[in-house]
Amino acid sequence: MAAAATPAATPVAAPADEQSFKVVTEQFADLRVLRYQVPGFEQLDPKQKELLYYLYEAALAGRDIIYDQNYRHNLRVRRTLEALWEANQQRMASSSNTQQVDQAQKLNVYAKRVWFSNGVHHHYSTRKFVPECSREYFAELVRGVDSKSLPLLPGESVDQFLAAITPVIFDPTLDAKRVNQEAGQDLVKTSANNFYQNLTQKEVEDYYAKKINKKDLRPISYGLNSRLVKDKSGKIVEQPWKVGGLYSPAITQIVYWLGKAADVAETPEQKLALQKLVKYYSSGDLKVWDDYNIAWVHDTKSRVDVVNGFIEVYGDPLGYRASYESVVSFKDLEATKRIKAIGDQAQWFENNSPIKPEHKKKNVVGITAKVITTVVESGDAAPATPIGINLPNATWIRKEHGSKSVQLGNIVEAYDQASAGGMLDEFAYSDEEKQRAKQYGSLAGKLHTDMHEVIGHASGQLNPGVGTTKETLKSYASAIEEGRADLVALYYLMDHKLIQLGVVPNLEVGKAEYDSYIRNGLMTQLSRLTLGETVEEAHMRNRQMVAKWAYEKGRKDNVVEKVQKDGKTYFRINDYDKLRNLFGQLLRETQRITSEGDYNGAKTLIETYGVKVDPAIHKEVLQRYQKLNIAPYAGFIQPRLVPVEREGKVVDVKLEYPSDFAQQMLEYGRKYSFLPNAN
Fold it and tell me: Is this entry keyworded Transferase (predicted)?
């Protein structure tokens, strides 16, 4: 397949020169758009570049899938905005009517928010957002464009289309939450994602209770790659996402490019893994998915790597169904030395953990730890991106075959370069704390990510006969697991072992991360919530739970102190060693909950410490944060790979850095729209 021609409206790609590279491109709503560089790409050999290009195309081919998974109307909304974009830009540029320009600018921002969040629900809070322009302005634009450009359903008129799409876009109460985690509610019926149809939470849980064999030591990931629906006859059926099934047009494209990648694989192990991934996408067989993950874990010699599939289950409140994502990368050989030093000592960390002896792995196997240079991200990994990955998610595969733990090095570097000034000065209590953060904060953050992924997620084991966490801990599984991994990292960040390994110069690095974690968990992350909201996102719940539990349990000894200075609230750590001990106690408890499958224990911990927000502190944080004019969320424009062909063969690949977020989204919409408007 030939690459689409670059449209005239697309800005010329910026040069890769580090001195002239602009990381931050724009800010709107609560979002910042950044760019990242791909150092080392030019030094790769032509075959490695060709492999990366095929994996890049495979990644982007699945872009439509995440939109449809997030909400059944998302593709229609996105394509409507794409159809209106040019007309709206003309209104904004040429109109002398200030009210009309204002309306156009507001629709402009809405379109960018939809692109950023892969749909009409906020990428992080999952709450629905709506345009600030009027319905009348929107309708006027719709009626003014060629109806052929609109995502009309068969036989649908423009008026009928407007009647259907307007409430989807403008009514905040219609399908208000993509993922609802509020205790006491039916989490399936009140979540707007497209994973279930005509079902209740109880029906879904009963369906899998009958299906899953809790005695199976190697359970397959039931529900990972399908939509669960109740048909008109009342029968519950799974509709798998595969070639010939749901999302077939997009998955067929993914398979095509993965097949080309397999043909130029670096090693036999990599070729086998890619072939198994193709077989999985073609069959929808979850046992083949396990086979692929095992093969992928054993591919340790290839420099190029890829994550591609239905991976993380945060988008499903019950934790069964996974969102499409892809991360294409190659190993950063120099930066990997730090993370590898930790991975190589995984058994020591396990043996010396404060968790109960029966919960420790006797033989930690096959942790491949590396820092990667990201080339492109897609699906649930873009534009907002993880900074660390530990896969596969299946506990039994990690136990028997190991895992890959990575830090996205150039993504972390871009975040560091874009680091917004003012946060530290506003929320850090003392000059000592600020200086420590400036000197060690970057290394501390990287090490926390390293250990969270490498020895955090890979540590501990379930008791014999205990089901997977999504079965036992249910809607609290993700928050408990992320908290457990955070606690492993926090506990060891103040250990002299890190000095012995040569990854830190002293324990001031650990103190810098403790300062940052407490500050974020108890205060600054609240800037992401609207006043009156509770915490629902799993990572935010885990951070508040850990910080608040440690604060409350340490109050007797004044371990973490709430202080007032100049009319502002701060949290100051008075005893770092005692705080480390508290982190160890909570690690022991979260591992016990995980190992025993203690649902009530998980519920009590998260609901008591991770959900409720102090309204006075929340109001104060929002007021202080607003003055800084910093968007709390950030995501990325992706690099562009352009093949150089000779006689029908790829002989080289050029790397470009687009600089306009909207133009990239429009380009993707033209090139990678494979799914119908309704699926």
Answer: no
